[in-house]
């Protein structure tokens, strides 16, 4: 027997129920009639029994029809029970499949929640990295600007140093002839050579000697020293301009560890005279 769908089984079941109800009513009526006949036979005696036997012989095809109907009904009931068992089996199978699908959906839901949390974390990290990248980009731009300014200042300082070297190389180094026009005969100038200054400015300088010793030819040495002093002052002025530009280009957090206190004070005080700069401790050397 081929299986049918549940939708087609329901109308067939209702039709079968109606047929069964009709057959049951007919069987009940037939049984009641037979019971009446049996009672009538007992009351009327043997004659009536013979007549009833004749009538029973006449009703034999109806009984056969009822037996056929009963067999058909039994087969229908057995088929319906089998259909019901199949339907229950399909129902249990569908429930088990749906439960498995529900468990799978729950697991996928948890995985989806975990993936959403991971995506949110990655988005937060991406946002933080974007902010850090933006900050670093600004810092790089500032550093590039500072490097450009520093390069300009270094080029200017190199030019200033080159100018000083050119002036030193072009300045006369030999002793000049004595001239009485600049130095009176009755006022001899005396002096001595000392070592003073710090760093690149440390070197030998000519100063007046209070002991009366004459070194390096008196007036000529004084004139050369004055010219050297003026040249160094001019170079220091250009050097301070470059240094001020470097200070301006440097960030506030940078500390120039190589600057001395006197140089920083002179750089911060524009009214400071070059003659008031602290050149360090003086050291005397033997005259050559």
Structure, explained:
The chain has 288 residues and is mainly alpha-helical. Among the domains are: 107 residues; 93 residues, no CATH class. Helices cover 70% and strands 5% of the residues. The chain is built from 5 helices and 3 strands, in the order αααββααβ. Strands 2-1-3 form a 3-stranded antiparallel β-sheet. Strand 1 and strand 2 form a beta hairpin. The longest helix is centred in the middle third of the chain and has 111 residues. The protein is rod-shaped and about 175 Å long. The N terminus and C terminus are likely disordered.
Q: Helical region count?
A: 5
Structural class: mainly alpha
Ends distance: 137 Å
Per DSSP E runs of 2 or more residues, the count of β-strands stands at: 3
DSSP strand content: under 5%
Q: What series of H and E elements makes up the topology? A: HHHEEHHE
Report on the biggest sheet.
3 strands, antiparallel
**Strand order, sheet with most strands:** 2-1-3
What share of residues is helical? over 70%
- What is the average per-residue confidence, as pLDDT, rounded to a whole number? 68
Radius of gyration: 65 Å
Give the overall silhouette. Answer: rod-shaped
> Which regions are unreliable across 5 or more consecutive residues at pLDDT < 50?
1-9, 174-187, 212-219, 253-262, 279-288
């Amino acid at each position: 027997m081929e299986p049918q769908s549940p939708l087609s089984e329901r109308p067939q079941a209702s039709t079968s129920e109606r047929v069964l109800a009709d057959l049951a009513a007919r069987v009940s009526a037939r049984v009641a009639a037979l019971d009446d006949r049996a009672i009538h036979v007992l009351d009327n005696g043997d004659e009536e029994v013979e007549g009833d036997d004749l009538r029973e012989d006449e009703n034999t095809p109806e009984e056969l029809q009822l037996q056929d109907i009963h067999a058909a009904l039994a087969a229908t009931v057995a088929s319906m029970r089998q259909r019901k068992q199949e339907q229950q089996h399909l129902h249990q199978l569908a429930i088990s499949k749906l439960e498995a699908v529900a468990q799978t959906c729950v697991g996928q839901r948890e995985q989806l929640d975990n993936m959403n949390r991971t995506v949110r974390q990655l988005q937060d990290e991406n946002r933080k990295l974007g902010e850090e990248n933006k900050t670093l980009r600004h810092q790089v731009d500032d550093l590039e600007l500072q490097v450009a300014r520093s390069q300009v200042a270094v080029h200017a300082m190199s030019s200033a140093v080159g100018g000083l070297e050119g002036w030193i190389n072009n300045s006369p180094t030999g002793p000049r002839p004595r001239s009485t026009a600049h130095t009176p005969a009755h006022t001899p100038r005396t002096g001595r050579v000392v070592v003073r200054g710090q760093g690149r400015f440390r070197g030998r300088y000519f100063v007046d000697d209070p002991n009366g010793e004459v070194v390096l030819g008196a007036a000529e040495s004084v004139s050369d020293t004055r010219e050297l002093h003026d040249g160094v002052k001019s170079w220091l002025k250009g050097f301070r301009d470059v240094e001020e530009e470097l200070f301006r280009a440097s960030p506030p957090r940078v500390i120039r560890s190589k600057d001395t206190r006197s140089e920083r004070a002179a750089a911060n005080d524009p009214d400071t005279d070059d003659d008031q700069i602290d050149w360090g401790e003086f050291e005397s050397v033997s005259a050559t």
